Structures are given as structure tokens and as C-alpha cells.
Amino acid sequence: MIVLIADTLLSRARISHIEPKDVIDILIVAFLIYRVLLLIRGTRGVQITIAIILMVLFYYLTQLLQLEMVQWLFTHLLTYIAFALIVVYSPTIRRVLTNLGRYPFLRQWTEKLPAQAFEEIVLAATTLSTKQIGGLIVVEGEVGLKNYIETGIKMDALLTYDLLVTIFSPYTPLHDGAVIIQGDRVAAAACFLPLTLEPQLSKELGTRHRAAIGITEETDAVAVVISEETGIISAVVGGKMHRPLDGDGLRNTLVSAMETKANKT
Fold first, then answer.
1. Quick one: DSSP state of residue 111?
2. How far apart are CA 221 and CA 236, in angstroms?
3. For residue 162, with 0-12 CB atoms within 10 Å meaning exposed, 13-18 middle and 19 or more buried, which class applies?
4. Where do the DSSP E strands lie in the chain?
5. CB–CB of 217/141 below 8 Å?
6. Which of 100, 178, 186, 192 has a CB 3.0–4.6 Å from the CB of 151, allowing a cystine?
């Protein structure tokens, strides 16, 4: 697969007469490569991509030197390499497909987060922070979180400060895992979320923070994390963590994130 792509690009490069459609073709390919590089930046995919490029260059070197045995080996390994790439890049592929699936007309199916819901989340987060009780709150965006809701305990209850604080109390069976919010409803509690694969993440950040980054990398949800060790409040948007936050900072971050999503549609 990799060699086939490289052959196609090289054959394009040998065209003597360039037409406008060829320029458009090149620009589209360049843009796609640029977007992929942005998605894998700072992840283990960077090293894998470099390794792939080196393998392709080595393959063409074997062709130049007419090393038939090595070429035969590469040809028979290409199928296995293709499957390996799908496995390794599966998080990136899933993220790309999710971004492509966000269309403006889908917004009519999503529930807007009421202003009062912001206040309930902020009040609960600051209360948990003061008491140094850990918590993870995920606010659903346009991308549905049904798969993650099904991993927890479904509630479908009105979002209130008291409910959130009660859920995360260390003496309740629901305090582990994440709370997922849809509109002004608490959809589920004790939900399991995907952990980020970011290798450069600080060791000070625990499982809650890694889960918050993971869910916001794969979807357009916004996550609020309260550290059990330090009481620090963090907000995660698009895989980027904002911390430390006080009540006003958290409120502004949530409002800004939601307004940004609205403007994009």
C-alpha cells in the first residue's frame, strides 16, 4: 500500500505538462498530509511515521541497487504492514472520521446546554475542589456519547449541584468513573472513558485527567476534572487541558467552548 502510494506520487511528479487540475490535486494531497501530521503531532504516531518513510526510502534504494531478495521480502510483508498500520493508527483514524461526520444540519438533534447547567457544574466543581474530592464531569457536544453512557449506570436525572456532589462522594458506589451530561440532564454516572495515549503527559496527572483528555480527543465533548490529591480544577477542550481554574475561570472556559462549537456550525 505504502509503495503503491509512493509510485503514484512519483509518476505524477514525472508529468512534464502540468494542468490546473494537477495543481488542485497536489494541493489536496498536501492539505491531507498536513492535517494528518497535525493529528499525530506529539503522539507515538510521529516516530512510526518516520519509520514508514525510512522503509519506503529503503525499498526504493533496493530497487536502485537491484537487490531482488530484499524486494521479494518487502513485497510479501506489505500486507501485514498495512494491517499493522490500521491497528497503530486506529485512534487517529477514528478521530478523523469523527471530525468528517460533524455536519451543521446535525445540530438540530443536539441539545443545547442551558445557562443554569453551567452554574450547577461550576458550583459542584468548586465544592468538590474545596473538599478535595475527585470528580470527572463530561458535557456531551454534537458527537453522541451513547457508547460510553452504556458503560455506566444510567440515570436520566435533572442536573443539579446536589446530585453531582452526592455522586462523587467517596462513600457512594458511583463516585468512581465519569458523569456524562446531556443538555440539562445527568445521563449516566460511573462511566468508563478511553485514556489518552499522549506519551508526553505529565506524570502528576492521574487516570481522571487521562480519561478527560482521551474523551475530548475522540469527541467534541468538554470535560471538567477535580483532582483528589490537590483539589485543582481543570477543563479539557479538544484534548487541551486548562488549569488551574477557579469558579469564574471554569465558567468562562465552558461558555467559550460552547460558543466556539456553535460558531463552527
1. P
2. 9
3. exposed
4. 135-139, 153-158, 178-182, 185-191, 222-226, 233-237, 240-245
5. no
6. 192
Helix (H) or strand (E) segment spanning residue 58: helix 45-65
Angle between helices 45-65 and 20-40 (to 10 degrees): 130
Where is pLDDT greater, at 165 or 44? Answer: 165
Taking the CA of residue 234 as centre, how many other CA atoms within 13 Å lie in the half-sphere pointing to its CB? 25
Query: How is residue 196 annotated by DSSP?
Result: P
Query: What's the predicted TM-score (pTM) here?
Result: 0.63
Q: How far is CA 151 from the centre of its chain?
A: 19
Using pLDDT thresholds of 50, 70 and 90, give the confidence band for residue 260.
Answer: low
What's at 163, amino acid-wise? L
* Residues 6+ away with beta carbon under 8 Å from 120: 159, 160, 161, 164
DSSP code of residue 18: -
For residues 233 and 126, give the distance between their C-alpha atoms in angstroms, rounded to a whole number. 8
Domains and CATH numbers, the chain: 2-100 (no CATH), 106-264 (3.40.1700.10)
User: Nearest 10 degrees: CA dihedral of 162, 163, 168, 172?
Assistant: 110
Averaged pLDDT for residues 91-118: 55
Q: Give me the amino acid identity at 123.
A: L
Query: What is the DSSP secondary-structure string of 208-224?
Result: HHHHHHHHHHHSS-EEE
Residue 158 CA to chain centroid, in angstroms? 28
Smallest CA-to-CA distance from 196 within 218, 180, 181, 179 is with 218
Handedness of CA 229, 230, 234, 240 (dihedral sign): negative
Asked if the model's pLDDT at residue 202 lies above 60, the reply is yes
**What does the alpha-carbon distance between residue 165 and residue 13 come to, in Å, rounded to a whole number?**
62
